[in-house]
Amino acid sequence: MSATSVGELLGKVRGGDAAAAEELVRTYEPELRRAIRVRLTDARLRRLVDSIDICQSVLAGFFVRTAAGQYDIQTPEELLKLLVTMARNRVIDWARRSQADRRDGRRDVSIEGEDGQQMQFASNQPGPASVLISRELLDQVRSRLAPEELKLMEQRAEGLDWNQIAEQTGDQANAVRMRLTRALDRVAEELGLEQSHV
Q1: Using DSSP, how many helices (H) and how many strands (E) does the chain show?
Q2: 177 within 8 A of 162, measured Cβ to Cβ
């Protein structure tokens, strides 16, 4: 995929083009899943979460932030690097949560198997696999943003760069970018999309 087509593809994703989102997933998911499996080495962690779960979580967060215009990606290599970094952070988050859960004995769910061995099961809490990458998700994000945050998101989705938005708001470009980043971080956490971002 060329740099031009990456820009065009992301522009279509920002506009809500489902076919563009499917093409992006088809192109980048295999490499993303491979990167996740390489990092998902702890057997206890693999019982709690699968590479598919993490991949879906990464893509959900990516699509929300892309629709909001947060990323300025120019090349296929930049896009892959971003997705792999997001996946690495997501695996680290799961490992930390798993470690914390093991320290809290009340969170263990275990049953003895026929051979007397303890069998661990993942909690029945909804996980990243239950997140649907859809217009409904973007609607939820929009509904949780303050009016000025929503306006920033819409301006970025229209293709304005940070300097253009800063001129309109009278702020510095970096301050405007950070305001939207913090707003999306807050909403992503409220929706359970991610624990950390890139």
Answers
A1: 9, 2
A2: yes
